[in-house]
Amino acid sequence: MSVRRRVFVSRFGARAVALLVLAPAAASAQSTQAPPRVVERPLPTQRTAVPIPTPASVLGFEPGTDRKLPTWKQITDYFTALDKASPRVSVRTLGKTTLGRPFIVAFISEPSTLANLERYRQIQRKLMDPRLRTPVEREKLIADGKLVVLITSSIHSTEVGGILTPLVLADRLARAQTPEARQVLANSIIMLVPSQNPDGVDIVGDHYRATLGTPEEGSGPPDLYHFYAGHDNNRDWYAFALDETRYTVDSLYTPWDPQINNDIHQQGANAGRIFIPPYMDPVEPNIDPILTAGTSSLGSAMSWRMISDGFTGVATNASYDQWSPARQYSLNHRGVRILTETASARLATPIELPFDRLGPGRGYDAREVTWNYPVLWPGGRWGIGDIVKYQTAASWALLVEASRDRQGWLESYADMGDRALGTRPARGEDAWPSAFVIPKAQADTQALHRLVWTLQHGQVEIRESAGPVNAGAATYPAGSYVVLVRQPFGAYAKALLERQRYPDLREYPGGPPKAPYDVTAHTLPLLFGVDVAAVMGEPPATGGIIRPMAEPRFTSALSDRRVRRIAIFRTSRNESMDDGWTRWVFDKYRVPFTAVTERDVAAGALNEKFDAIVVPDQAPAQLARALGDAGAAALGAFVDAGGSVLAFNDASAFLAGALGLPVKNVLQGVKTTDFYAPGSILGVEVNKASPLAAELTAPVPAVWFEDSPVFEITDSTAATAVLTYPATGSALLSGWLLGAPRLNGKAALVDVRRGRGHVVLYGFRPQYRAQSNSTFPLIWAALR
Ligand SMILES: [Zn+2]
Fold first, then answer.
1. Distance 299 CA to ligand 1 centre (A)
2. What is the pLDDT of residue 784?
3. E strand or H helix at 705, and its extent?
4. What does the alpha-carbon distance between residue 759 and residue 697 come to, in Å, rounded to a whole number?
């Protein structure tokens, strides 16, 4: 620990030490900069005795104090000081965040465990992968191993309790002497990530402190709290677009594959006080059922304990589902996922909530006792102290309940390894393919390499075929990439390589569709535009596992050149996540741009500064409010004078109306019972005559459809359909689609000529969460 601590301290400088010494509770602390005055003859192996700092001694306030949020520097100062003082805590820096802050993790366990972490990691590897152990070894590994728990907190920075709860948990674990705490420490290795988004701690905290005492107090910041992804930063657990995702995956998930992930979040204020699993349906069908059952079991034990301890308003089997791997790395990698969602206040500002203002959540009503909401919260004051108390109690319940049965957890963990390699009972696998084949001859080599890199980054093993591979009607040459389904994370690979059939869930029989918690599709071959085929029957003969692919560099004809003057529009308040993802794509492709707001648009003379303006997806009402008629007119004048406007998804519907373009959105006003596609991959036909489609190479052309507009052209002399939904049959390739006939023959991408310029209407998200690689070329083509 001491070596790591030195690295850590040097990175943060001496301020942590100074704060520690100045703080009252640490008044007798020994500074590492001054010679010790008290300890005269330490034993050779004994650390200099430093009192364990309380969080308050470093922050200057108790975690959970109204109207008080810490800076990220204060949090890292606290963990630095704790690492120095407690032999149960070892803090590491995993890298720099997107905006340059240190991303840290605290390993917490018995000192003897921390001193032998690599030994325990090797035990964990062998339990995970049966190829690394013998049946005889298995029992000894289970006897010797530890339960590994990864706690990730405050990925969503406005969920501010999660910024403070990790400090309370760490403090309790560092100083507790109770039998219960001893059991947790003896049986577990806890990896505590105090924030999965350190930049957001300051983006939200700075805004909060700046607006305290003003009418804005308690509001969210105008900018995204993750520079590129905002709230979408927990939709990145299979694409790995963000640096912060990669730190946790590369340094914690991949080396350890923890048995449990505790993911600490907050929800809205007006229903239950906390949600704990079981989740609602649907369940992603490739998740090992041991994990679904384990999540439900541990979650139920946590609720049982919390309710016994007097907590009220505990909801289970509500609101949150177990579908998209974008939100749940652990469930696809041998770990149960215990999401907790505690009710919010107004950031750190308390609220008053009378009982009669409480309402229904999804799956329960906060004013009625039901099996999954067995004790009512009576209403009243709710503040950050309550949030921290609930979150801490839930995480503590998790640690105690899980560590009580360390052996059971390790046994089922080892069982999952055996099942993944095919020595487990069948669970409908007869219908499973034995492998997927990915031929190396693809139209887009960059996309092929990104697919291989993405799978490997999620611990999928890739091999090369020893001979030709038959898959369906096609035969692929020897040397093709092969993903065997029977491998440690073969089910995860299958989830990403196959097409999703989202269940047709309704609010009630014959009623409107039940909205998914997030989106419904995650098929990488369609998103990336790569040809992949399933092999049924016997798996193909292959060579060994290939080495990890170096991450391919994003490149287009516009990369590293300033050929066109490009602006990306954002509203100055409520920046949209799609704006962030758009900037991500432009930055990764190294295509220069200028960010503009409604004020720049209102200033006019846009053609003097720009050739093209990109308007990312945002609610039409927000765009209308920000731009107004004058702003829309300025964009129209820009196009008339030769400029190009690219409008993504809902922004295309807004501009089509605001500029009076010759198209009609045929889904305008259509009820969800008649048409519904809340995040699905749809097939399209390509107008090869259009220059916009010139670089589209996907073997199965597809777009990311998410409550999108669909266009009918009303004047074909002024508008050209570039992508069109098929004239007959269903356009659905992956996910969920109701009312398919409404799409038949309608346009997904329209090039509208106006004056001397163009408006390009994308009735989909061409750069969906940095994942829809196959449609990125549709952006670059419109900017040429
Ligand atoms: Zn959240």
1. 18
2. 87
3. strand 702-706
4. 23
Q: Which of 723, 696, 661 is closest to 781 using CA atoms? A: 696
Within 13 Å of residue 657, how many CA atoms lie on the same side as its CB? Answer: 14
Q: Please list, in sequence order, all residues whose beta carbon lies within 8 angstroms of the beta carbon of residue 438, skipping any fewer than 6 positions away.
A: 448, 451, 452, 480, 481, 482, 483, 530, 531, 532
In this prediction, residue 440 carries a pLDDT of 98
Cα dihedral 6, 11, 14, 20 in deg (nearest 10): -70
Report phi then psi at 603, rounded to 5: -65, -15
Is the pLDDT reported for residue 468 higher than 60?
yes
Q: How far apart are the two ends of the chain, measured CA to CA in Å?
A: 54
Whole-number Å distance, alpha carbon 583 to ligand 1 midpoint, is 22
Read off the pLDDT of residues 70-101 as tens digits, 9 standing for 90 and up: 999 999 999 999 999 999 999 999 999 999 99
To the nearest 10°, report the CA torsion of 702, 743, 616, 160: -90
Distance of CA 218 to the CA centre of its chain: 24
Residue that the structure tokens 């804005």 belong to? 216
Cα separation values, 475 from 343, 447, 464, 534, Å: 55, 21, 14, 11
Exposed/middle/buried for residue 590 (C-beta within 10 Å: 0-12, 13-18, 19+) = middle
Measure the CA–CA gap between 190 and 108, rounded to whole angstroms.
5
Distance CA 15, CA 9 (A): 9
**Does residue 20 have a pLDDT over 80?**
no
Question: How far apart, in whole angstroms, are the C-alpha atoms of residue 101 and residue 219?
Answer: 24
The answer, yes or no, to whether residue 13 has pLDDT greater than 70, is no
User: pLDDT band at residue 431, thresholds of 50, 70 and 90?
Assistant: confident
Q: How far away, in angstroms, is 234 Cα from ligand 1 center?
A: 8
Cis status, amide bond into 766, omega within 30 of 0: no
Phi, psi of 371 (to 5 degrees): -60, -35
Distance between Cα 373 and ligand 1 center (Å): 21
Q: Are 616 and 764 a contacting pair, CB within 8 Å?
A: no
Alpha carbon dihedral 707, 713, 714, 720, in 10-degree steps, equals 140
How far away, in angstroms, is 470 Cα from ligand 1 center? 44
Tell me how far apart the alpha carbons of residues 89 and 94 are, in angstroms, rounded to a whole number. Answer: 16
Res. 58: pLDDT tops 80? yes
Instruction: Assess contact for 343 and 394: CB atoms under 8 A.
Output: no
Inform me whether the pLDDT recorded for 12 exceeds 50.
no
Which pTM does this prediction carry?
0.92
Q: How far is the CA of 4 from the centre of ligand 1 (A)?
A: 31
Name residues with Cβ closer than 5 Å to ligand 1, which is an ion. Answer: 156, 265
Q: Rounded to an integer, what distance in angstroms lies between the CA atom of residue 288 and that of residue 291?
A: 6
Among residues of the chain, what percentage have pLDDT more than 70? 93
Residue 5 forms beta bridges with which residues? none
Report the 10 Å Cβ neighbour count for 333: 25
Distance CA 658, CA 423 (A): 61
> What are the structure tokens assigned to 215, written together?
């009418």
Distances from the Cα of 309 to the Cαs of 297, 305, 314, 367, 382, in angstroms? 18, 6, 12, 21, 19
Ligand 1 center from residue 71 Cα (angstroms): 19
